[in-house]
Amino acid sequence: MTMRFGAFTALDNVELKVKPGSFHALLGENGAGKSTLVKCIMGYYRPTEGDVLIGEREREINNPRDAHALGLGMVYQHFTLVPAMTVAENLVLARDDVPPVVNWSKEKHDLEAFLSRMPFRVPLDAKVSDISAGERQKCEILKQLYLKRRFLILDEPTSVLTPGEADEVLGMLRQMVESGELTILMITHKFREVMAFADEVTILRRGKLAGRGKVSELTPDDMARMMIGAEQLTVQPARTGEAGTVRLEVNKLVARDDAGGLAVHDLSLTVRAGEIVGIAGVSGNGQRQLVEVLAGQREAESGAVRVSGEAYSASREEMRRHKMSLLPEEPLKNACVGGMSVADNIALREFDRAPFARGGWWLNKSAFRQDATTKIGRYKIKTRTPDTPIASLSGGNVQRAVLARELGHDVEVLIAANPCFGLDFAAVAQIHAEIMAARNRGAAVLLVSEDLDELLELSDRLVVMFHGQLVYETRASDADLTEIGRHMAGH
Ligand SMILES: Nc1ncnc2c1ncn2[C@@H]1O[C@H](COP(=O)(O)OP(=O)(O)OP(=O)(O)O)[C@@H](O)[C@H]1O
Predict the structure, then answer these.
(1) Structural domain boundaries, residue 201
(2) Tens of pLDDT, residues 147-163
(3) What's in the keyword line of the UniProt record (predicted)?
């Protein structure tokens, strides 16, 4: 299969073979072409050249409906269920043949019968907004099975799950594969998952087939080599220096969520210069709203934030004065303008100052482009040109572009929310190294993450957030995982 976007070749004569009744992993760096390949299979894109064969027969897949009719289904990284509806409503209404009047008692009866054949159960009458991330992902998978799709493509299905939930969901899928009910193609960045659950692996590098084989005959090192070729991994600097004075101070902060519920409740926290404070917690416990208040994207109801001793209201001028940087989650949505170029997005913080602007209004576009070109090189952003719209970059490369903008200069306060979500291991190594280097240079870092390993690796101090409050605090070096897990679950 070959797929060109204009003059750019995203997939170059790639071959992928998935055996029936197998669990196949698809690996590759950010921008390697994984999503493009599966979108071609699912009929979202029409490949420039190449075919999809199912059971050795060439098949015409012009749109996702054709793919569904052939039994192909896709589960995404983010949830697609309607939160305000029940699980049963979500399942029934996803069908192509929903009758104009639904006989719910019959449908429920049929659903119960369907569930009794499945290796895992979900609460049919619960509202999707009330169930955990693990249960939601199980529902997404059940929905595909309910719609009679027997070849499932999973695009990083565990990135919103805790390691325990991920193992549970993948373990159940593995059982279904072993019993011959299902075939799976899974995009992932986690070698642990590949080693534990997959039979075979295909590896892409820069749009080309870089390797494939049986997982039992490969080590994570072999796979990493095929993924990155001769590129060098960034080495993480050692932790140096002691924490200094308080830089960021949050005092009795109260903030509400969009529905008016209390999301952040009387929260107080300090972060010192040269210190990384990690916030652990299951997503949905107020972390997002806390970061939004610090980023100036949400009004606090009460409480105060101080930066370097001064009152702080998240204005652009204050952020500039205090050298604050932000790495929010979902960077394309929260930190970029999708239709604008990579260069313009990189310049968003500084565009109205010299050398990018003169007299406050004349914008020097060539200065934008020059600065962007340097940062594109330094942060290894895979983009055709600095003028390419940022929305057409792969997810990992959007993240790198935001990183280049936010960390490409002096930083005194850094607020990062799930900064490595969806990134390949080389990018994770680079971002972790950048965050540690900023800390070592004296920045105060607040790191919100759902990845406990990341928090333990980077933090000096760790706090647990539950129901909008900080319920536990420990030095990362003394952290006890069971204790942290207990507090994350609210016990
Ligand atoms: N609609 C599009 N228009 C132009 N270029 C695109 C489009 N979609 C993808 N690309 C380019 O194709 C390349 C492969 O992107 P793709 O999303 O397939 O990567 P990926 O391996 O899934 O990466 P990630 O792990 O970051 O999700 C990238 O360089 C991207 O910029």
Answers:
(1) 3-228
(2) 989 999 999 888 777 77
(3) ATP-binding, Nucleotide-binding
